[in-house]
Amino acid sequence: MKSKTLTFIFACCSIAHCLSQTNSNVLNEKNDLEKYFNIDISEVQRNEIKKEIDSFNVKIASDSTNSALFTERGFCYAKLGLHVFAIHDYNKAIMLDKANSNAYYLRGSSKNRFFITKSGCNDIKTASEYQHQEAEKEYEIKCGRYQLDDNNYITQQ
Q: Which of 15, 113, 124, 142 to pair with 135, CA 20 to 30 A apart?
């Protein structure tokens, strides 16, 4: 498990590094990078989200068995573009409550940000099976029009 986590973190850092080194013809400098990693937010918004994370840290310290707290803190991390931290919290939320459809949905969305498509789509599908309101539509849009092979999108032929 530790090896998979380290591999995942390395892959995320590698993607970020590659994108930051990419020619401006491919990415429109900083703006495209910020949008790609969901970090095109103001400093005021960023500080508000950090305060929310601090609040969740206090709540989790007093109730570390509450799946919803981990899900919500993970969502805050994702809003900051910190998807590795978000996925870690979603994993904890799912460990605490196997039927937490929101955690599956959000974990799938964060994974898909880093092209972990098969696993991300499987999470979104699981959320759909648990009656998550947005998951079925999201699965059709992001996953349904492609056949998944390993962790790559393959266009239908």
A: 15
